[in-house]
Amino acid sequence: MNPNIPHQHRCGGPAPRLDRLPYDVLDHIAEYLCRKPATGRACVSAMHLALVVPTTFAPCLHVVIRKLDPLPHVLRCDLRGYGGFHPKTEDVGLMIAVNYDGRAQMLLVLPLRDEHRLPAATVRDAQGRVRFAMPVSSKWSLLNVPLSQVRTKVSIVHGERISIVPPRCQRLSIRGSLGGSWSSVSIPSTLHELGLDSGSLSTTLIGARNNLVDQFPPHLRTLSIINAFQTSDPNRDTILTLLFEHATSTLTSITLRNDHAEVLPDRARVALAMLLQRLPSLSQLELQPCENVHGLDTVMAALPRSGLRKLALGLNLTNGSNDIDEDAWARFAASFPTTVRSLTMRFLGRRHDPPIVKARLLVLVPCLPLATHQLVLSTCSSRWDCDVSAVFPLAPTLRCFALSTSQMVKGKHLAPLLQRLPSSVTSIRAPHTPLGGTAAIMALVRHLPPTLVALDLTQCGLLLADLNKFILYGPGWPETMRELSLRDNGHRPINSISCEMPTMEVLCDTKLAPWVAKLPPSLRFLDVYRMAVSNGMAAGIVTRMVARHAVWRRLTMVVRAGYLTDEALTNLQSKVHVQVD
Question: Which of 483, 471, 482, 481 is nearest to 445 (CA)?
Fold first, then answer.
């Protein structure tokens, strides 16, 4: 003990021992250890702590069981005893569902131990293969978890012979057709989240005893229906209507998505509108895609005018016809909420959209809700032009902006939108958008938000001249920028699969491009995968970056092997964490 420390400030006794820590303290330590790391399984560290002393066993493993989601892909295991399942090193930290002695059970794979309860040691045999020095004991490496303790997400997958639904689980995902087995699935009343996916709703739901409608969870908050119907199911409208009519008023999030057909048939639209009117805490609604807008105005009108956390819509602008009632589009446009926190809009079109599509866009786009925090825009219509971009509403408080287009949208037609981005934006993501060599890149250069933190221009067809414009014709890279992704730019055309390797003349070039010379020293992530990293570029980056001893504080730079010389790589590694893919 340091004699210079006053007696009144010294510890009153010995340091607390691990086996004497209170239960609540061990619970908090295990919670911290179960935070998902960058690599590896999330709960393995907490499981090792559980095996240190007897007093840490229960607190730590209770947290692990509370955090882990059981795996569905091993449900076919038929075991006559623990010895029928032989855990491997890669199984540690998993919770699996098995058929044990004729009944469904959950097993937690602990750090592997032998029959003497010692950690399983590995050795190399004569062929150099790694094997266990002693057989792994299933008795000491597997923990039977009571179903009543499992409250995480449980999945039922088509084809599995065991359908384990713990009586107190809070999240349930059903994937694939259950056939006539809906009556055998017991839906827990504790369920907060229900996901129905990949044909899990079928005609057998109608009239089945103890079906989903009769067992609808009384406290459900999140309902997700994604591709849950067969494409030709004639009762899709009826089933959705039944679900909406029996849904409880506790719902806060509804997601309806179908990649093969209209997501919301006619009768179901009326039922959904009535459901939305009795949901006082609704925060999120997603409908993708909507093949026509008839009746959608009643759905939008049932939403709160402001305060909605997220609204996501996918709209087919063509609908295969030119003579659709345009009044329906006007009613739909007038029914939108005023503001939402996050807005996702997908405009679906064709390579040769009819002229009526632009008229619909000009009616609809100005009436879209103002996204106060996040805006995600995706457009595939050949009729999207400067007139439409000029009337797209942008809130002065917008923070995150994401843009994606197809090759049917010309880059120059995005300029009126990009030049109006508010100064409050901190994140811009526009991957695979044809910006290079167009007026759109100049609009972005001249109006780059001053507090930008993240900029993603992956495969936008940018050449060296386009990157230099950020310095030569604009205010330059913001000092606040931490992430910059320029992956697949440079000498590769947009959406091109073939790629020519850069020549040694290019890689050995010692010139320093302006866009590199002005990179902010505070940059933390730079992705230049499939871009030539010349010796001059490497030297410029090293000059701009501040030396940091902690690796996690250094700039992480993603490059591709063969796109830089050994000299450039060695130079970069002096100050930069280089990730060679």
Answer: 471
From the list 449, 310, 420, the residue with the least C-alpha distance to 373 is: 310
Tokens matching residue 569:
């790589």
CA distance 438 to 444: 10
Taking CA atoms, 347 is separated from 88, 150, 292, 320, 394, in Å, by: 48, 41, 12, 14, 17
58 alpha-carbon distance from chain centroid: 33
Q: In sequence order, which residues have a C-beta less than 8 Å from that of residue 258 and are 6 or more positions away? A: 226, 227, 228, 229, 288, 289
CB of 579 closer than 8 Å to CB of 558: yes
Question: What confidence tens digit (pLDDT) does each residue in 232-256 have?
Answer: 677 888 889 988 998 999 999 999 9
Least confident of 114-118, 119-123, 463-467: 119-123
Question: Which region holds residue 329: left if phi is over 0, alpha if psi is between -120 and 50, else beta?
Answer: alpha
Q: Collect all residues with Cβ–Cβ distance below 8 Å to 249 and sequence separation of at least 6.
A: 278, 279, 280
User: pTM for this structure?
Assistant: 0.83
The rounded distance, in Å, linking the Cα atoms of 258 and 250 is 24
User: What's 343's DSSP letter?
Assistant: E
How far apart, in whole angstroms, are the C-alpha atoms of residue 105 and residue 537?
58
d(CA 140, CA 118) in angstroms, rounded, equals 9
Tell me if residue 320 falls in helix, strand or coil. coil
Q: Distance (Å, rounded) from C-alpha 555 to C-alpha 150? A: 41
Dist. CA 464–CA 471, nearest whole Å = 12
Angle at 189 between CA 270 and CA 148, to 5 degrees: 150
Which pLDDT score is estimated for 444? 96
- What six digits make up the tokens of 26? 């061990």
Token pair belonging to 30: 């295990």
pLDDT at 51 over 70: yes
Instruction: Find out whether 217 and 196 touch, Cβ atoms under 8 Å.
Output: no
Confidence label for 146 from pLDDT (cuts 50, 70 and 90): confident
Tell me how many degrees the CA angle 157-159-162 measures, rounded to the nearest 5. 75
Percent of the chain with pLDDT over 70: 83
The reported pLDDT for the residue numbered 548 is: 67
CB 289 within 8 A of CB 347: no
Please state, as a whole number, how many other Cβ atoms lie within 10 Å of the Cβ of residue 12: 4
